[in-house]
Design brief:
195 residues; alpha+beta; 2 domains; 8-stranded antiparallel beta sheet; 3 helices; globular; disordered N terminus
Amino acid sequence: MVAVLFMTACSQAPNSSGDNQATQASTPRGPVSGKTAFWEMYKSAHSWAGDLVPLALQSKMVPGIKNNAGKAAMWSATFGSASRHEARTLSYSVASHPPDIYQGVTVGRALPWAGPTREALPFQTSEFAVDSDAAYKTALSAAAAWVKKHPDQEVSFALGNASRFSGPAWYVHWGSEKSGYAVFVNAATGSVIKN
């Protein structure tokens, strides 16, 4: 899962040349749940490869719009295609913030993909039953004491699958990697995963 998240974080910003594409949404709006953004990106990714499999979904920030209660102003999703031996990271944003963020769906460049690994397994869309806002509520109940002591910490979300889990899991994280609190929530059942 870490490798997929790293690949997502290192994806290139869209530009006007090459095979990057941006489609505009009609009007800017507030933050959206992970599933809302995921399906917008999935539709675009499906036109790229009919055999695509989702690998990861991650919340992002848009300056001037606060992510709140499991919803984010921007999400990125990584999909893999076995027939093409490629992966692509797409993003969905509710607003534009030039020069790097565009409203709607932006399709990133194709990257080589050798297939699933123990740390980054694909998941089926049917296994993604619990949305980010529901995962947030579950994680918040588990992290309540820490969040109360650190009320101003940003929260981020990542959805992925690794061999240590029985299926895809939400990684809900408050604060920084050095000083923070994380909860894993099963994306199929909505229960906290004990590690």
